[in-house]
Amino acid sequence: MTEADARIRLYEASDDKRVKFSIGMASMEGLAVANRSAFFHPFTLSTWVALSCIMIQYLNWWPRPEYGFLGYLQPFPAFGCWGAVILYLMDWFNRPHFEDASLDLLRRPDVADIANYYRRSPSSGLFILEYAGKFVGLIAIDASKDSQSQSTLMDKGKLPSSLKSKHTMPQGTSSVATIRHFYIEEPYRKAGIQKDLLAHAIQHTFKADNTVKEIKVTTTSLILYAQKCIYDAGFALEKPIGKFGVYGWKLDLLVLGGHSGKNKMLFRRS
Fold it and tell me: Domain N-acetyltransferase, which positions (predicted)?
């Protein structure tokens, strides 16, 4: 990949629809992975086979060699029926978390007014990665005074006073920055281009204002390419923050800085 082919730039107003679409899509991406992982879980497969065999026994759908090749296909409808039911149930259990998370992200102040929100601190920024003029991915780091707020525009009672009016959002930098969004289009992930985007954002955050001491991000093993990239950049587990889905996949809070200060200084000097 040559320098002329790829570039990282700041968000522009013309990117608004594409960025919001990508943020929502990135949030829902885990649903397909969760459903697939849940279906191929040993317990799910065992349940599927057991229920199918019970149905076959009850309806006497065991293979009948006397009918030739077609006789061996007789049990298949039972497996198909229960497979469809289990797929539906997996999606029914998993979907609410991802839909709620997607709506939550799209209702947050940083998405409602991207340009103004990420201008509040010199260490903040929403960066767009392009390759050959095409959108490849994005990363958003929030280093404002509200960098750790999880409130949405729907939570009027919980929303910090500094965020209640987008016209009066105060300037300033927090000691803790948060990676709010990180997404790369699937065809480009194998090339590892996400590492360049993450490194650029981290370097910008630490260099722009010495106030920033740590960068935090929430991640899950369902989005493996992002989690691996973040760990490879030097982030370490701070604490598990919850579980979700039918098999209780973990949400982890990772941090760069503090105990990872050596890595932080490397980014400052590079």
Answer: 85-252
Q: Tell me the residue range of the domain where 70 lies.
A: 35-94
**25 and 81, same structural domain?**
no
Of 260, 118, 89, the closest CA to residue 180 belongs to: 118
Asked if 30 and 95 count as a contact pair (C-beta separation under 8 A), the reply is no
What pLDDT does residue 148 have?
A: 87
DSSP state of 164: S
Contact 198, 221 (CB under 8 A): no
How many Cα atoms are found within 13 Å in the side-chain-facing hemisphere of 64?
8
267's enclosing H/E stretch is helix 261-269
Please choose, from the candidates 168, 120, 129, the residue with its C-alpha nearest in 3D space to the C-alpha of residue 147.
120
- For the range 23-27, what are the long-range contacts, defined as Cβ-Cβ under 8 Å and sequence gap of 24 or more? 23/105, 23/106, 23/111, 23/138, 23/181, 23/183, 24/102, 24/105, 24/106, 25/183, 26/181, 26/182, 26/183, 26/223, 27/98, 27/101, 27/102, 27/105
Residue 163: per-residue pLDDT: 53
Amino acid identity, residue 36?
R
The pLDDT-based confidence of 185 (bands split at 50, 70, 90) is very high
Return d(Cα 91, Cα 88) in angstroms, integer: 5
Closest CA relative to residue 163, chosen from 212, 109, 84: 109
The CA distance from 4 to 44, in Å, is: 49
155 and 205 in a single domain? The answer is yes
Q: Is residue 21 part of a domain?
A: yes
Q: Tell the residue number behind the tokens 């910090």, with chain if given.
A: 160
Residue positions counted in the chain: 270
In a domain, 99, yes or no: no
Residue 1 lies in a domain: no
Q: Are 114 and 130 in contact (CB under 8 A)?
A: no
